[in-house]
């Protein structure tokens, strides 16, 4: 199988040597998204909840560009500069996902790009076309 590079203007452009996502077969590997507004490439806000919502919006745009939707994600890795914000992540995530939820990890980190408080990456499994 060959790899297909996924790119959309509805999510922030890559700010380094990576693709927004890479698709192999029906599996899509999503690069980390931070809370940048796609049109300005600036942080949406300093407010953590607004940052979390923007990250899920960005991930959703990449999922759609790959031919799926956020609900098709099977694994989510959440990177936080402050793990005490995790309850807010759960609240925000509940707005974007319904059961069954994806597998998930939460990782505390010292710093994220552009001063972001949250970054999320993951794996998407597209519905079978058979």
TrEMBL record:
<dbReference type="InterPro" id="IPR006056">
    <property type="entry name" value="RidA"/>
</dbReference>
<dbReference type="InterPro" id="IPR035959">
    <property type="entry name" value="RutC-like_sf"/>
</dbReference>
<dbReference type="InterPro" id="IPR006175">
    <property type="entry name" value="YjgF/YER057c/UK114"/>
</dbReference>
<protein>
    <submittedName>
        <fullName>Reactive intermediate/imine deaminase</fullName>
    </submittedName>
</protein>
<dbReference type="InterPro" id="IPR019897">
    <property type="entry name" value="RidA_CS"/>
</dbReference>
<comment type="similarity">
    <text>Belongs to the RutC family.</text>
</comment>
<dbReference type="GO" id="GO:0019239">
    <property type="term" value="F:deaminase activity"/>
</dbReference>
<dbReference type="Pfam" id="PF01042">
    <property type="entry name" value="Ribonuc_L-PSP"/>
</dbReference>
<dbReference type="GO" id="GO:0005829">
    <property type="term" value="C:cytosol"/>
</dbReference>
